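Blackboard transcription, Thursday session:
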Amino acid sequence: KAGVTQTPRYLIKTRGQQVTLSCSPISGHRSVSWYQQTPGQGLQFLFEYFSETQRNKGNFPGRFSGRQFSNSRSEMNVSTLELGDSALYLCASSRTLRDDTEAFFGQGTRLTVV
Amino acid sequence: AQSVAQPEDQVNVAEGNPLTVKCTYSVSGNPYLFWYVQYPNRGLQFLLKYITGDNLVKGSYGFEAEFNKSQTSFHLKKPSALVSDSALYFCAVRDRGQDSNYQLIWGAGTKLIIKP
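(Written on the board underneath:)
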């Protein structure tokens, strides 16, 4: 069974640009969550999608957005990039939304804003 | 409000010795509790979880964790540490039964260093 796939693995962008990150969940998983991980702030929740609907959102500015497609694949977009957006972005999938089962994480996309 | 605390930024243990990584939590209801491990340049990997039942939970790689309701703790333990256990460990909690805020709440992480 393939794991969670995130693309690309690495990105370098210039301040002011926008970026789109992609996440393909484990087959059969319908919930996808996104996290930002930085050395100073730890793991910060961005948003969670289930059945193409955003079900929960963290405390990030509107520059951060996402969506989920009918095949459960998800994308997140960051517009007007700032230097502070440099981070590891992690995607996690789960079978259902409110579930006591564990989330499965991808290897992440390392975004560097210069 | 839900919260998770990992009071130690770093834990140093000699190989072969027992290890403990601490986690305390605060939720309004009964918790689902999780431990994850992150190796360098990798995503998080699930180690173990507590949902209900036996307070001692066994997980991957020889790790176990003890749920203590009175102390609201869920400490991660291993009887004999390996150098390969060196990694970043995260504790997380979900407040069972909350309709509006069921997201996982994460601790800040504890860096575990096992010295040969």
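Lecturer's comment: DSSP finds no helices and eleven strands in chain A.
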